[in-house]
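My hope is that you will study the record closing this message with an eye to the fold:
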Amino acid sequence: MVQTSITEEQLNWEKWIQERNPAAGNFLVKKYLPLVSYHVQRISVGLPKNVSKDELRSFGLMGLFDALEKFDHTRELKFDTYASFRIRGAMIDGLRKEDWLPRGTRDKAKKIEAAYEKLEQQKMGNVSAADIAKELNMTEEEVYAATSEQFFANVLSIDENWTEQEEKEGFTFVLRDDNVQTPEQKLVKDELLQELVVNISKLSEKEQLVISLFYLEELTLTEIGQVLNLSTSRISQIHSKALFKLRHLLEKLIL
């Protein structure tokens, strides 16, 4: 059965490459459609509830179609790897154009940051989400959600620079010379990474596991929930709490 499936896929690739056969194209879209669902689940983690997953999925589909049109089969690159970049890039482009993060959420994130700095100076130590919630008359969940969304917005700005570079130069894994760090930059980043490891070790066991499964194993929140026998919403809460505790270090590493 496996061999038949592989042969069928190869035949459809040949038809698509040689003559852009519509039936072959439809077969390949269906074959790689799970990639779109996968990236919808991962990207939607940092988005507010007002952003429709269906809209995000439509952006991803455009990325998949684009990947089929532009894929160079002569290069030593797996299609699903190439398609993942195109799908994710299309979602991010769509989100930027839609201005997905409402002004109210941006303002709330700024207030949280200001409150954090104020309380940190007053307490001369760590500030909890409960402290900020009390200071701003919010719920802890509002603090966690706004922090997570703001963190994703910062990641989005990094992706915007990458996407613009890709469109100018064509798809490549060699992004730019900016990635070559000076000895001073490498030293600072190494120190931040060491500090991040220490702070991750201070998280609860569940928080450490969720962070590891999401960022290292690249599971979706739904998949992590199945592993830990918890609901997706509960995994989302754990993820948001962990990001809140690590946010300053993470932002320094990506900016």
